[in-house]
Amino acid sequence: MGSPPQLTAEQRQAALAKAAQSRKRRSEIKALIKSGSLTIDDVLHLAQDEDAVAKMRVKELLESLTGVGKIRAVSLMDRLNISPTRRIQGLGKHQILSLIHI
Fold this sequence. Notes:
It contains 6 helices and no strands. The termini are far apart. The chain has one domain: Helicase, Ruva Protein, domain 3. It is about 65% helix and about 0% strand. By secondary structure, it is mainly alpha-helical.
């Protein structure tokens, strides 16, 4: 495995700012899901346009739902044949359809 690329101070700052913005956006999405303002279907549509949402883990998405904790999220993912480390952007069409119909 090679060494990471050497970044200039400006590139490093830009990368850190982009990462912070992505984490903030994912946090906002999870809060909206928790409050019931967004559904899984809404999030899947947002993921098509927003890279930060597309890179959210499916487990985090499910844990944001009311009444779904860590154990139930893992159980749902097992039942739907979704890897525990899968991100939204990596879901197949059958997995997307099964998630929408939870």
